[in-house]
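Work Package 4 report. The design task specified in the project plan requires that, given a folded chain encoded as structure tokens, an amino acid be chosen for each position. We show below one input record used in the internal validation round.
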């Protein structure tokens, strides 16, 4: 899976599952692509994987909530 980490000028910094990063030209991405979106390559261009993006966002939210609860139990707060 590829995830858009950030945009820099006309490029997107993309992260692979193993945390390696590389850049691709922003013009190869759909206009609706945003930081944090999961993308897949198809026929030389990229598409946003809406389902994978949603699952990833939900998992990140769950982790934040777990960490917040852990800190609250320790008397701290995010």
């Amino acid at each position: 899976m590829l995830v858009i980490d950030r945009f820099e000028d006309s490029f997107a910094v993309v992260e692979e599952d193993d945390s390696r990063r590389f850049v691709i030209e922003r013009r190869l991405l759909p206009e609706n692509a945003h930081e944090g979106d999961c993308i897949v390559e198809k026929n030389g261009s990229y598409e946003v994987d809406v389902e994978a993006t949603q699952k990833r966002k939900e998992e990140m939210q769950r982790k934040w909530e777990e960490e917040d609860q852990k800190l609250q139990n320790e008397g701290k707060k995010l």
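The mean pLDDT is 92. Validation will be extended to a larger panel in the next phase.
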